[in-house]
Design a protein that fits this description.
about 45% helix; 10 strands; 18 helices; single chain; two-stranded antiparallel sheet
Amino acid sequence: MLRVFQLDLTDPDHFVVTLELVPGREASGRAVDSVVGIARDAFDDGRVSAVSITDNPGGNPSLSPDVLGHNIFEIGMDVIVHFTCRDMNRVGMESRALQLAMMGIKNILALNGDYSGRGFGGQGAPVFDLDSVQLQIMLGLLSERINASGDPEGFFTGCAVSPFKRTEGECFAQYAKLGRKAAAGAQFVITQLGYDARKFKELIQIQKAMGITLPSLGSVYVLTPKVAGIINAGKVPGAVVTEALLQRVQDEWRDAASGRQAAIERAARLAAVLKGLGYSGIHIGGIHRSFDMVGSILDRLAVIEDQWKEFLADFDFPLPGGFYVFPPQSEVGPETPVFGLHPPRIGLLERLRYSLLRRVHSTFFDHRHPLGSIYRKLSKQVDAMPGGQLLMHLAEDIPKRVFLECQKCGDCAVQHVGFLCPESQCAKHIRNGACGGSRDGYCEVFPERPCVWDRAYRRLVNAKRTRQMCEGCVPPRMWELNQTSSWLNFHLQRDHQGGYNEIAQRCRLIKCPPLTR
């Protein structure tokens, strides 16, 4: 009988176990047989609710999770397919979603995805046509179509969150985006990997404060010295292994048998802590050869789960100087998230740029402004002129390039990102909040460049306007406006703010839970 992940996860008495499988680059052979064999053993064991299958992990090519998931689904094991925004535009993503629905695979983890890696002939072109919030909306709209066609089961979609961040801006951006994902239709949460129990607890506290009731799975990983070193070096975006933990793992594995046992014990203890903190389940990774280690972890968990408070000290690996939303447990503090008590400093030039751009925007780009109707009439006249676009090029493009590094997308979104351009300053062009890959406030893709969302937070918190990062949903870029005047498009309501496509209409209805009050 097929076990159903959704039913297990919505049962409050069921502590869910999912297992992440990573396909290789081969279409057949030993690597594929190993992945399918682990899934078969997991099904026979009976304690794993579903296996999840990564989508080109690290941005590198691998066997499609869809076809592999279909083969595993036929064994009887339920499947969660990772669905990233990296490799397909919105047309391709809709087609892929329909294909998954036809195959009966309805559990989807919606992700932005790691940046593009290398394929045949070099690095692949990153797409990121939608972001993970917009993908949630698209899958929800497709579910409605699926239901209308007579299939009562739509997609069961989840999202990821990375609470293991060092800066205040990164933390705020992660939790604000989680609120947007929940409002956009996410039905479960899986965390990124970390070993800080206080951060795991913080995520539960944040969801409670925001009124988010999504079941959450905490990531548990079988750490080896090699993997710990890779994560410590920042090569797994969003995951954290500190220097202290890396040294401990290396010491444990001086003897392979002892290291293996220590890895099992750490995984079991973290699982016990997560269960004690109120997580709905665990998401186990790092299993590549056989199911045996998973069985050992779950066996040990059954023995020690009631001792979870004793293990909290085993997961005290904070990032140096890291920000926490709530005070330590030993201190009396507020139950609501506290941001902005000590705003990160920004330079005078940064303040002036933000202030100038905000004033210009409120004066010239607000449909409610007293002169709004006049701007609209002038825009119609210029738009109808034979040389209208050339005139706007001279008036618009030069100052926007100087102040915003404008790429002339024709569908400006700077007002959503603290008056910073998501097209020129975010490698993934995300309009609804930070990806999970930033490190110490710097970009996953260009480590020398500050994350644009961390910069936006710094601007907004100093202006006491951080709520803008939590409100509503920003529709996707309208590619049909590329290389046209965004000023004319705004006043003539041709851009995403006036657009009437399905996602834009749904975005207007979304009410996100507040992160700050």
